[in-house]
Amino acid sequence: MSAGILLGLGLGGFFDGIVFHQILQWHHMATSAGYPAHSLSNLQLNVMLDGLFHAATYIFTVVGLTVLWHSARKQHFKWSARLLIASMLMGFGIFNVVEGTINHHILGLHHVNETVPPDQWIYWDAGFLILGAVLWIGGWRMFKSEQVKTRT
Predict the structure, then answer these.
(1) What are the angstrom distances between the C-alpha of 14 and each of 2, 60, 76, 126?
(2) Which tens digits make up the pLDDT trace of 88-138?
């Protein structure tokens, strides 16, 4: 379970950083915290912060792979793709809920979609949290149902 959660955290971070920061360019790490990407110096700072963010998600992914590798080498380890997918969904959801709560709502570092008018940011931020909760709960339910199946 811990390997899947760590992998899900890493993949959730990579999805956010690659899709929202780079491809869609909806926001960067500190675009709402007084560093909008309208000047070269602000863009440089945001790209550096985005890189640190990606480094953290890379660490989650590497640690998750390491835990999975060590677990898989144990004699009693029973493979279950559904358990791994379920725990990865939980990790992805946890990423959305924690990152969204802290960065979007508490610290106000950035918002999910800053290309829309500011009065609409809350809808995108709330949607991000709702998606995270759905992934987290869905992964948890899938994990629990699969545990029951593997015990019988």
Answers:
(1) 18, 10, 32, 20
(2) 999 999 999 999 999 999 999 999 999 999 999 999 999 999 999 999 999
